[in-house]
Amino acid sequence: MKKLIASVAVLVPSVAFAAQPITDANSLVFKLTSIGNTVIGILIAFAVIYIIYNVVRFIMASGEGRAEIRANIGWGIVGLAVILSIWGLVAILTNTFQTDTRAPIQDYPVNPNPPIIQ
After folding, report:
1. Whole-model pTM?
2. CA–CA separation, 55 vs 16, rounded Å?
3. Which of 39, 69, 78, 108 lies at 20 to 30 Å from 31 by C-alpha?
């Protein structure tokens, strides 16, 4: 069951992005940026949950296990900093090379006769 849930979680973005074909470099960058932002958001959520979990454990722990939990909190903060740094680096590279992170407008179908609302 866990493998099924993990497989669905991994494959859902690829199905959602399958509706728009890659036509040029900008559409490729758009898809990669969208996937990257989703992954980074999930990683940030996991890192924050990990830090909060260890802070609660640290508060509830007695004297013998606090050093290990304190190290886990530190590593969680380091991991969060690395994740945010990668996110910032991607934003810097996207802005430096002036790639468009929005979906190309011409790929969407346009109704030549829109309904008139009276």
Report:
1. 0.61
2. 37
3. 78
Task: State percent of the chain over pLDDT 70.
Answer: 71
Burial class, 47, CB count within 10 angstroms (exposed 0-12 / middle 13-18 / buried 19+): buried
What are the domain boundaries of the chain? 24-100
> 54 exposed, middle or buried (CB, 10 Å; 0-12, 13-18, 19+)?
buried
Find out whether 34 and 14 touch, Cβ atoms under 8 Å: no
Tokens of 91: 């934003």
How far is residue 89's CA from residue 52's CA, in Å, rounded to a whole number?
Answer: 26
Predicted pLDDT of residue 12: 67
